[in-house]
C-alpha cells in the first residue's frame, strides 16, 4: 500500500480552479518530485496536504488513514512534516531551540513540571538536547546551535527547517523548494543530505523543486503540474522525456 | 539591537535568571539596611510596596508582550480583578477570627486565581484576533472591568451576601449588615497587610514561575507561536492552547500585583488612574522600555520610572513634563535605527540597550 | 419624542467621534501606527480657541482657524521629531513614543493653562431648532456638528479620489516602498496626513467643547480612546469606516446612558465593540487579512 495516496484533490480560490483533480501515489521510502511552472499549484497542494487549506473535494490518505481536511497540528501528529518556500524559522530562538520546538510532542512534560523544575523536566530536556544535536549534526549545524536562527546564512536556514521538520518524527517529509537560493555547491551537498535523510531515517520525501539537476539527480518519480492539473506522472526519466512536458515546461 | 547569539540556552538562561534573583535579594538587603539605619526618607519607604506592585505587574505583562508577542492594553483590568476579589475575601473573612496570615495567603491565592480565570475567559475570544485589534479589545475589557466595579454593591448580613448594580439601598440588608463593596466608593477598611518583605517574596515567586516557564518546552512553544504561527502549527504545536496558557498566566501575575495593591491601601476604588487604560499603558511602557522579553529589564524600568517623578518632586510642576521628555528621548535613543547604528559604531552600551530586542 | 432627541444627541456626539476617528484611521492607514497623542491634539485645539475667544476676544471663526493652524503645525512637528526617526522600528516602540508625546502635551497644557477646569463658552450661539410644535428641540451645536462632519467626510473622500496628493496618500497606505519607487514623496505624504488629521482634531475639539463645555488638560484622552475604538469598530484604515464607526459609537453611548445605565455607558460601548470584532475581526468595513503561506 502506498504511504501517501491522494485522489481527485481540488481547490478553488474566488472561482479560479487552483488545483484540479490532483492525484498522486507515493510508496514508502520513495523520493518523489513535484515540478511545474510558477503558479501551477505546487505549494497549494502542499498546503492542502498539511491542512493549511481545506480542499473542496478529494481524499488524502496517509498510511491508509484519511487525513483530508484535518487541522495542521493533527496532520503533523499523523506523520506529515514540511518546510516552507519562504523560510519560516523561529527567528528569535536559537538553532538548537528551533529543533527542540520540533521535538515538542515527542517529549511531553507539563508546564507544572517546568515551573517546579521536577526531575522529569531535567530528564526530558537532556534527552531533547541530545536528540536535537544529533539532528543538527546530520545537517552540519552542530557548531551553530547557539546562533539565533535569523543569523544563519540562507542555505543553513533551509537545512535547519528540514532538521526541525524531521524532529517531529514524520513518516512523510514535504520539502518546498529546498534548494532555492543555494549555489551549485550547496545544492550538491543538499542532494546528498536529502538522500542521506531518506536512507538514515527511512523517510518518504515529496519535494517541490525548480532545480532540474536536483530533481533528475535524486527523484525516482515525478509529477508535473501545469495550471493546476497533472500533466505527466511516472519515472523521472520517462517524464522528463515526455514531449508534453518539454513543450509545456522544460522547453521554455 | 541585533544580537548574534541567543541567551535562551538552558545553562545561560539559568544563570541569567539567578542573576535576576540575586539582584532582587541584594536590593532587598540594601533597602533593609537603609531603613534600619534611618537613611531612607519616609517618602521613599512609602514607595517600596508600589515599586513591588508595578514590578510584578510588568513581569506579568512582559510574558504576554515579550514572549507571546501579543499587545495587551488591558492588564490593569486583571490587576483590578485581583485587587477586588482578594480584598472582598479579606473583608468578608475579617471578623470570622481566621488567622490573619493564613487569610492573607488565601487572599493572594484567590486574587491570583480569579485574575487567571478572567484572563482565561477573556483570552478565549480575544486571542483569535491579531495585532492592534487584540490591543483594542483588551483595552475594552479593562475598561469594562473598571466600569463594572464602580456600579457593584455587595453587602453581607446574617442572611448571607446581597448583590446589586444600582445602589446600596437596593441590597435590602439588615440593620447590622456590613457593606463590602460600595459602588464607586469601593472597598474600605481592608487590613494593611502588604509589606516590602511580602512584595519581594511575591516578586521572587513570580520571577521563578515565569523564568522556569519560559526556559522550558512550554516557553519554546509560546515563542514559536510568536515568531511564526504557521510554522509552529506545522510542527504540531497546539497554538490556541499555548496562547491561552501564556495569557492566563500573564493575567494571573498581574492579579497578584493587584492583591498587593488592595492590601496596601485602606480604600480600594477602581479609578481611571489606578485601573484604567492609563495604568495598562504605564505597564506597557515599563515592558517596552525595559526590553521586551527581559523580566529584569521590566523590573528596572518599573522601579526607575516610578521613582523618577518622586525624585523630581522638587521641581514640582515640571516633573511630569520632564518625565514625558525622558520617556520620548529614551524611546528614540533605544529604538531609532539611526541611534542604534550610532551606538554600534561607538560601541556605547546604554542603560537598557543590551536587552532591547525587536519582536515581530 | 425623547428617543428622537437622544438619537440626535447620539448622532451629534458620534459626529465628533467620527471626525477624531478620521485622524486616527488616516494616520494608521499611512504610517501603520496608533497615534495615542491624537486625543491630546484635540485638547490643545480647545485651549487655543478658549484663549482666543475668552482671553483675547477674537472673532470665533478666526479663533477656530488659528486653532486649526496651530494643531496642524503641531501634528507635523510631532511627526517629524518623535515618530519619523522610528519609522523603521517596531510598531510598539512608536506606540510608546506616542504615549510619551501624549504625556508631554498634557503636561505642557498643565503648565501653560493650569490644572483648574476652564468653562468653555460655546462659540455656536445660534438658537436651537424647534420641531413638532416645540416638543422636539435640537440644539444648534448638534446641527453644526453633524453638518460639519458630513462636509469633512465628503471633502476628504473627494480629496483622496480627485487630487494628486490624495492619490499619493492612497498609494502610500497600500505599499510604502512601491509608492516610493513610483516617485511618490513618502515623507511629504506622511506629513500631509498628520497635518490633515491634526487640523481635523482641532475642529473636533471645538465641537466637543461646545457640547460639553468643561476644559482640562486631560479632556482629550477619553474621546481619543473612544474615537480610536470607533476607528477600529468601522475597520481601521477605512475612511467611511471611521464615519460609520463614529456615528454608531455615539448613538450606542447616548442611548446606553439614557436607557440602561449612565455609569455603564462606557462599558456598553466597549462591550458592543468586542462583540462586533468577534463577529467581524477586522471591523465593519475592514478588509480581511490574508496570510500567504
From TrEMBL, chain A:
GO-annotated molecular function: ATP binding; ATP hydrolysis activity; L-isoleucine transmembrane transporter activity; L-phenylalanine transmembrane transporter activity; L-valine transmembrane transporter activity
Domain ABC transporter: where?
4-252
The domain of life for this entry's organism is Bacteria
Q: Which InterPro entries match?
A: AAA+_ATPase, ABC_AA/LPS_Transport, ABC_transporter-like_ATP-bd, BCA_ABC_TP_C, P-loop_NTPase
One BP term from GO = L-valine import across plasma membrane
**Pfam families on file:** ABC_tran, BCA_ABC_TP_C
Question: Which SMART domains does this entry report, sorted A to Z?
Answer: AAA
Gene Ontology CC annotation, any one? plasma membrane
**Keyword Cell inner membrane in record:** no
Has UniProt tagged this entry with the keyword Transcription regulation?
Answer: no
Keywords noted in UniProt: ATP-binding, Nucleotide-binding, Transport
User: Where would one find coiled-coil regions in this protein?
Assistant: none
User: Matching PANTHER family, A to Z?
Assistant: AMINO ACID ABC TRANSPORTER ATP-BINDING PROTEIN (PTHR45772:SF7), CONSERVED COMPONENT OF ABC TRANSPORTER FOR NATURAL AMINO ACIDS-RELATED (PTHR45772)
Protein name as annotated: Branched-chain amino acid transport system ATP-binding protein
What phylogenetic lineage does the species belong to? Bacteria, Bacillati, Bacillota, Clostridia, Lachnospirales
Automatic annotation (TrEMBL), chain B:
Question: What broad class describes the main subcellular location of this protein?
Answer: membrane
Q: Which UniProt keywords apply?
A: Cell membrane, Membrane, Transmembrane, Transmembrane helix
Q: Which Pfam families match?
A: BPD_transp_2
Recorded GO CC terms: plasma membrane
| Highest taxon above the source species | Bacteria
Annotated TM spans: 18-35, 47-68, 74-92, 104-127, 133-154, 194-214, 283-308, 320-337
Q: Name one GO molecular function term.
A: branched-chain amino acid transmembrane transporter activity
Give the matching InterPro entries: ABC_transp_permease (IPR001851), LivM-like (IPR043428)
Topology in membrane: Multi-pass membrane protein
The places in or outside the cell where this protein is found are:
Cell membrane
Which PANTHER family does the record cross-reference, listed alphabetically?
A: HIGH-AFFINITY BRANCHED-CHAIN AMINO ACID TRANSPORT PROTEIN BRAE (PTHR30482:SF10), HIGH-AFFINITY BRANCHED-CHAIN AMINO ACID TRANSPORT SYSTEM PERMEASE (PTHR30482)
This one is known as Amino acid/amide ABC transporter membrane protein 2 (HAAT family)
Give the originating organism. Muricomes intestini
UniProtKB/TrEMBL annotation, chain C:
One Pfam family name is: BPD_transp_2
Q: Quote the subcellular location field of this record.
A: Cell membrane
Give the GO terms filed under biological process for this record: D-alanine transmembrane transport; L-alanine transport; L-isoleucine import across plasma membrane
Parts of the chain that traverse the membrane: 6-27, 34-52, 58-78, 90-113, 136-160, 192-215, 227-255, 267-286
UniProt keywords (A-Z) are:
Amino-acid transport, Cell inner membrane, Cell membrane, Membrane, Transmembrane, Transmembrane helix, Transport
Q: Which InterPro entries did the record assign? A: ABC_transp_permease, BCAA_transport_permease
One Gene Ontology CC term in the entry: plasma membrane
Sample GO molecular function, one term: L-leucine transmembrane transporter activity
Family stated for the protein in its record: Belongs to the binding-protein-dependent transport system permease family. LivHM subfamily.
User: Which protein are we looking at?
Assistant: Branched-chain amino acid transport system permease protein
- Source organism of this protein record: Muricomes intestini
